[in-house]
Design brief:
Layout (H helix, E strand, L loop, with lengths): L4 H4 L6 H13 L5 E2 L11 H12 L12 H13 L11 E4 L2 H12 L11 E6 L5 H8 L2 E6 L10 H7 L4 E7 L11 H13 L8 E5 L25 E6 L12 E4 L2 H15 L11 H10 L1 H22 L15 E2 L20 H12 L1 E2 L1 E2 L11 E4 L4 H17 L2
Parallel strand pairs: 1-10, 3-4, 3-5, 5-6, 6-7
Antiparallel strand pairs: 2-8, 7-8, 9-12, 11-12
Helix pairs in contact: 2-12, 3-10, 4-10, 5-6, 5-9, 7-8, 11-13
The protein binds pyridoxal-5'-phosphate.
Length: 415
Amino acid sequence: MDWSERIGSLKPSATLAVNQKAAQLRSEGVDVLSFAAGEPDFDTPEVIKQAAIRSLEAGETKYCPVPGDLATRRVVAEKLTRENGIPGVTPDHVVLSSGGKHSLYQIFQALIDPPAAGEMAWEVLLQVPAWVSYRPQIELAGGVVVELETDARSDFKISPDQLRRAIGARSRVLVLNSPSNPCGTMYTPGELRALGEVVAESVEQAPDLVVISDELYEKVIFGGFEHFSIGSMPEIAERTITVNGLSKAYAMTGWRIGYFAGSGEFGLKIAKGVSRLQSQSTTSIPTFFLPAVRTAILECEAIVEEQRLVFARRAELVYGLLTRIPGLVCPKPTGAFYVFPDVSAHFGKRAPNGQKIESAMDFASALLETEHVAVVPGEDFGTGGERCVRISFACGDEQIKAGMERLARFVGSLS
Ligand code: PLP
């Protein structure tokens, strides 16, 4: 008896091998320095925890409305209006789900149908390297990914021309993720406006095109860059869905809280569609998390700023140390807590353990084996990723210094 083709199509992650090896080394007592984390190393702020505890103690343990209660959706709608400038967002445009990942999964399901016989599949324009879950989510919905390639030299950003060339009659979604996981860079407001204008100009050519703007890392920004929500552009507001969540901004990855909203009639329709889907699966986020969502959004600005400054300092530190290592090409990190150096200058060399380095995966596994440093090989992030490794700086300064020293020694040992 086998599982469905749908499940069979999901490939096991290439990163898993490195993580398993790191866990094995650790269990043998080896001092492994891990730069693989995809989550802040801070604890959830106490005020947020207390809001959930109080709710639980008050007996708020029953079902709640599928998209979340009105009070919480209002807080989210007001946040998107006030901070992000997205027009026409009301509580009815907002749906809370079990993480940004869940929001994205459901949005793809709500927008994309598998192709009917003889029809071309819906295309999703995805800038790569990109977060690992977009491709499987798109393909599970029946869409095909059209990769828009970027590299370290272009700060991992697409150009308006590149986007213009990629848009066609079957274009259904453009996914944007600024700041980016895994690239650690973000677009300037001007660059995003230019991309938005291309989308606006393409209405006749691609009437069904929708922008999904994944803004999970909106609060983790530095280098003087300002966060800009493309959904605030009036010309494309009704074709844009802004996705966000509490995981990265408030160190709440384990809580599993995400949300999205669009504008106007389209925004209402997508919220209704996703709610319909969610009502048949998870129903809602836990009822006693709702006050915690409100507390996070309304009361934690100072804590978020403190954490942002810590990440900014670490970004400087890691970048300064990395750029001293020969052959690593890396744009300066401007957002999220990752750097994504291109290590391909070292392909064709041999590590001291005898391993030939032909790929990011080889680089990562030889680094782990010889210097006990865990990084994420870029293969899972799409084209371009196979030349890069992801280094997360969601860890302390001392670890960053020790890890980059080991990385430098590893690179120096390649021959
Ligand atoms: N989008 C990006 C770019 C991410 O990196 C992640 C998590 O790593 C998510 C979405 C989903 O986050 P969550 O489901 O924890 O909200």
